[in-house]
Request: fold
Amino acid sequence: MISVESLRVEFGVKPLFAGASFVVNDRDRIALVGKNGAGKSTLLKILCGQQKPTEGVVSIPSDTTIGYLPQVMVLQDDTTVRQEAQKAFSNVTELKAKVDALNQQLAERTDYESESYLALVEKFTLEHERYMMLGADNCEAELERTLMGLGFERSDLERPTSEFSGGWRMRIELAKILLQKPDVLLLDEPTNHLDIESIQWLEQWLAQSAKAVVLVSHDRAFINNVTNRTLEISCGQIVDYKVKYDEYVVLRKERREQQLRAYENQQKEIQEMRQFIERFRYQATKAVQVQQKVKQLEKIVPIEVDEVDNSALRLKFPPCLRSGDYPIICEDVRKDYGAHTVFSNVNLTIKRGEKVAFVGKNGEGKSTLVKCIMGEIPFDGHLKVGHNIQIGYFAQNQAQLLDEELTVFQTIDNVAKGEIRLRINDILGAFMFGGEASDKKVKVLSGGERSRLAMIRLLLEPVNLLILDEPTNHLDMASKDVLKEAIKAFDGTAIVVSHDREFLDGLVTKVYEFGGGKVREHLGGVYDWIESHKRGEANGGNGSNGSNGVNGSNGPTKPIKPTKPTNPTNTAKNDYAAHKEQQKLLRKAEKAVEQSERKISDMERRLKELDDLLMVPENASNMEFVTEYTTTKKALDEEVERWEQLSEELETLAAGS
Reply:
């Protein structure tokens, strides 16, 4: 399907890779691996034609279609979710118009025996068969299945795409690519914005429906479940392993050991040649042999060996005060945004030393509960943070708190203490800040690089409760291994919000599932939860009253109707007038609550936009954005308090109506 011959790509003196040759065949599931900066995303761009190689040929048959999902793309906000996804069927729409036009011509003509009419019939038959082969009659059903598989609700399909975050809009773009059913799928980090259920759905789709796949991902479980072949970019070469990722790791270790032995033998040979040349350089009787050795030395092609893998690096959190026995206790915790209940009746106890995971679809309240624990947002119910608790909190916005004038090395050197200061370069290398990268100033780092730096800083602070919200988003596999081992060795308590199954496996012993406005506890690891979910046991949940559930009555949304009087007396008329006045006040209160909710929604949307802007390196020090962010955050907190007061007044009026 795609043939690559003698590919070479250069951006500087040293090429990213050279002499690369491989073929992508039908039903291939290829994992493209290599260190950050090795050229994985560049290779995908070359395969889809967005970038030209320095040398070499990429041969793609004219009838082969390619679908490409980049890590970052320009998104449009002028349609609904359904309308945007329907763009995937533009070829079907065009073909339908063509078939309809041909059908119209056949209906209008009467020269049934002419050659041109028979040619028209043949053309109509051919185009109609193509139209039917594309499954045009099932387009809408397939569209809904795909969007819902990627986490959307049916009610979301008519909402404007502008109401969704960047991550959800990336899901729409992924859905469009899948619906087009290209011959070759090129996916660059497709799981970055997906939750566990959506990732599992995508794995199944790729296994059953995809023709050929080339993907880049740092999600080890996803790669293992999807791929059957591994292309590694290493030392400027592309090495083809005809095995899945786990088997590749074993073969790569053996290959590196062979590289080391060959490198050592070559260095020994070079040293012997140089010694011979130096020893006999000025002896006339050895002149011919010396010249031969010089020529041999010039012809030697140095053997390159991969840099030492720092994934074996062990980090340990500095000692901290012992916390109380129960760092977190929640009793009937509830969080509402307007009429929407994020979760209710949350009752959980996290013991000292436990490592727990918060899982569930995006938007079900995982990060919201974390913010409640951190005291960042108001909530109903009782939430107690235990005695002597020192929290280490990682979220994406933590990266904005770094001092921009410091270098990467200085940022870590300022928090490192004791013997760990001697290993700062090793630690930075393990998190992809090796070599000259450690001398970069924070202000020139990308959003992902800042997040990694904030993570390293957290690892060196003395805490006894770790709260990590999507900590692996910008980490490669080696860095994730370092982080995972550090958390496993951590003496304190850890709450991890993540969709990375491989990262959670063996790390957590309890899973809290968020969904349907409830939080359910599952004992065991993440794969135990997945198995129970498959068996349908997760649907049982924990017992709760229907009135407190997400679908329970919220009181103020539906005013109680007056009871019809049995006798039309003056008292009844007075009661009716009083009730009418009460309803007037109730409608006024409802309107005030709705206006407040709209303000909250607008401010939250603007905060998300500012977050995205501030993640771009050139905007990170823009004081106008920072000032607006601070002002908007303060206004949002005040409006939330006002909304709570208005909601209480509304409930009082509704109860008395």
DSSP finds 19 helices and 18 strands in the chain. Residues 541-569 have pLDDT under 50 and may be disordered. The two ends are 70 Å apart (CA to CA).
